[in-house]
Design a protein that fits this description.
Elements (H helix, E strand, L loop, with lengths): L3 H9 L8 E4 L8 E4 L1 H4 L9 H7 L4 E3 L3 H15 L6 E5 L2 E4 L11 H16 L5 E3 L3 H8 L7 E3 L5 H6 L11 H9 L5 H5 L3 H8 L2 H8 L16 E12 L2 H22 L3 E10 L4 E7 L6 H12 L9 E11 L4 H5 L13
Parallel strand pairs: 1-3, 6-7
Antiparallel strand pairs: 1-2, 4-5, 8-11, 9-10, 9-11
């Protein structure tokens, strides 16, 4: 979906249309941009940017709070449309999914015509615009989906695959973040052709197991199937504070409150977990996590007792804290079947648009 959260807001509020709109936190506090309209993006605003910086970039920007319940409802509408074309749907977030239509007989099996029809169906049902990427594997379909936004439909055929990857800048490779991009450039890898010139052994030596994945996608190869159901891997919550925290006792109290929320969520979903993770973002935006796994299922009391040991592995005594988070993972026991029926989510809260 194109600028999903912001597009929903502009659809529901005509006064926002054609204006720089930001969905996210209060710019006068410590919020971040969850999503923004294309009008806002012209000012250099993007998701995960501090709201205060977004305000400096565009003084006339309109800030609105997220309405996650509405976004989830629209997301389910869209997934219902997907399932009219194929049962092989793998959601990545509320606004994005992989579809395997290789066995579909609709539109005589043309994936491009199916994608075009899905875009039309989404617009008719929601009055929202989607972009689609069509190709013979996940990696190329994902790259293609970003080529012609907004309202894009881009096809990469098997004959075009290798040449397309060779000319692709490393920064545009899905799954390669800023840190990996910097390391690759330091190694002289600036595009797909450079990556293709590396041996598999060299890439594995430099990047570990994921090096084999880089070796394959440089050749347009990605054999990952579309998985229509996923096991939820974690569940958690986090909070960004208006003022940096520098008191250890206060940090422990804040984490205890987050534990209570996570424990309630576990109880509500009838899940059990064995690993707890704390997430800390320091005042300079460095992000760290610390985890501990127990032999017995986590209880609220157990989770609280783990906090001091995990904090001892951080620098909270000498650095200020901007954000705290708690998550649990390594689900197990009799409730694992229930886990499989839950939607996949990001480590801390809702996926971003």
């Amino acid at each position: 979906m194109d600028a999903f959260f912001a597009s929903v807001e502009q659809r529901d509020h005509p006064e926002y249309r054609g204006k720089p709109l930001i969905v996210g936190g209060d710019p006068n506090k410590r919020g971040v941009v969850a999503a923004c309209s294309y009008e806002a993006r012209k000012f250099g605003i993007h998701s995960a940017m501090p709201a205060s910086r977004a305000r400096r970039l565009c003084a006339d920007a309109i800030f609105v709070r997220p309405r996650m319940d509405v976004y989830r409802e629209v997301s389910e509408q869209i997934r219902t449309i997907f399932r009219q074309y194929t049962d092989l749907v793998e959601p990545l977030s509320l606004d994005e999914a992989y579809l395997d239509v290789s066995q579909s007989d609709q539109h005589k099996g043309s994936a491009t015509l199916i994608a075009k029809d899905i875009k039309r169906s989404i617009f008719e049902a929601t009055n929202l615009i989607a972009s689609a990427g069509v190709s013979y594997n996940k990696f190329l379909a994902k790259i293609a989906s970003d080529m012609d936004k907004p309202d894009g439909l881009y096809l990469i055929t098997p004959e075009q695959g290798q040449q397309f990857v060779e000319q692709l800048a490393i920064r545009k490779f899905h799954g390669i973040g800023k840190a990996t991009e910097a390391k690759m450039k330091a190694l002289g890898i600036h595009n797909g052709a450079d990556l293709k010139n590396c041996t598999e052994a060299h890439l594995v030596d430099q990047f570990g197991k994921v090096g084999r994945h880089y070796y394959l996608i440089a050749r347009g190869i990605d054999n990952r199937p579309v998985v229509s159901s996923r096991v939820r891997k974690s569940l958690g919550t986090e909070h960004t504070y208006d003022q940096d925290l520098d008191d250890v006792d206060q940090i422990q109290k804040e984490l205890q409150q987050l534990v209570a929320k996570v424990a309630d969520n576990l109880s509500e979903k009838k899940l059990i977990a064995y690993t707890m993770t704390i997430k800390i973002k320091y005042d300079d935006f460095e992000l760290i996590t610390r985890s501990q796994t127990t032999k017995s299922p986590l209880t609220p009391e157990t989770m609280i007792t783990l906090i001091p040991d995990l904090l001892a592995k951080t620098e909270i005594k000498i650095r200020k804290v901007r954000l705290l988070g708690i998550s649990v993972s390594k689900f197990g026991g009799l409730d694992q079947k229930k886990v499989q029926s839950l939607p996949q989510a990001d480590l801390f809260g809702e996926p971003s648009s």
